[in-house]
Amino acid sequence: MLEFLKILFFIGTALQYASRYCVPLCLPMISKELNWDKLEMSGVLSSFMWGYTLTQVFGGMLSDRIGGHKVVIGATFLWSTLLFFTKSIVYNSGLYSYQLFVFQRFLFGVCQGVYFPATSSFVGSTISLRQRTVFSGYAFSGSYFGNLFVGLFGSLMLNKFGWPFLFYNVSLLGFAWSCFVHFYLKHRLTDAYIQKNEPLAISFQDEKKSQRREKLTICHVLFRREILILILTHMCEVSAFYMVSSWMPTYFEDVFPGSHNYVYNILPYIFCIPAAIGASHTSQRFLETGKYTVTRVRKLCVTVAYLPFGISLILIHLFQAYFYVTVFLFVIALTTKACNNAGTGMIPNDLSPEHSGLIFG
Predict the structure, then answer these.
(1) How many angstroms separate the most distant Cα atoms in the chain?
(2) What is the pTM of this model?
(3) Is pLDDT larger for residue 296 or for residue 94?
(4) Are 98 and 40 contacting, i.e. CB atoms less than 8 angstroms apart?
(5) Is the pLDDT of residue 150 over 70?
(6) Cα–Cα distance list, 126 to 57, 58, 118, 143 (Å)
(7) pLDDT value of residue 198
(8) Which residue among 145, 160, 172, 177 is the one 20 to 30 A from 12 at the CA level?
(9) Which positions ≥6 away from 166 have C-beta within 8 Å?
């Protein structure tokens, strides 16, 4: 069952990101049809993040109470519904099409904001300690496959069928995934699969603390030094990553007009999946040797992810006259960033598996 769960959550994460990437990919075409300027385009893109931010903590708390898988399934069904009606909102809303589209993107962010806290809660409450890092690596690496899927097939659909066809297909896949996972997990998540205390060949003090059952509140979480550091680290990561993933298609359209869109929509994400899974397996092996503490392994993953990412973004500005050099730098940035799946994303489960949803949120 565990291997199949990896596949299911890999696909779930892929669909989350495929649906998110639909608008950044299609926005240059939509904006030309409706004569939107850069300010209006930024309003569409940023409205998603406002909604996405609002439900992080709530989604984590709800997941810790009722189960992360239930929150993930319900949220996926809701965002699939919103995505399905995108064409109707854009074309059939008259003078208020822009305002309604921004509001729809806000609600879309509200629904998707619960996914990662809920998944983290599911991992902490259901997956054994020995398997958590690898399971999360597989599950979270689906984000790059989602971008790759939309970059490849989305570009073909755009050129042949138009942008609404892409939205319909991704939303139908979301419906199918949420229904299948609901019926598959309905009678399978029993105590036989919950193994929180499986021993791991590693000695570190943080894990002993994480096994205590203590009731955490938002105030307890916010005023702990390690949580504040985690929030700052995650804020740096997501602000840089979402800036790149959201604006990259528009950037290439502006700087390199007429270039093949499948090149910059596909190549930057090809190596992310093996990098994310490889980082998870490597970090788990480091932990099992007993020579490295959890803190050192997580710091190593974060450093490998962030340092080349930041340097690549600086170099992109210097070499923006060269198309393939720019694409290569985006490849380096996103590939190394994928190693953070075994870094920041695992820290909530390291600190407190029972409350990982709240902490992740």
Answers:
(1) 64
(2) 0.77
(3) 296
(4) yes
(5) yes
(6) 20, 20, 12, 21
(7) 42
(8) 160
(9) 22, 25, 26, 150, 153, 154, 157, 158
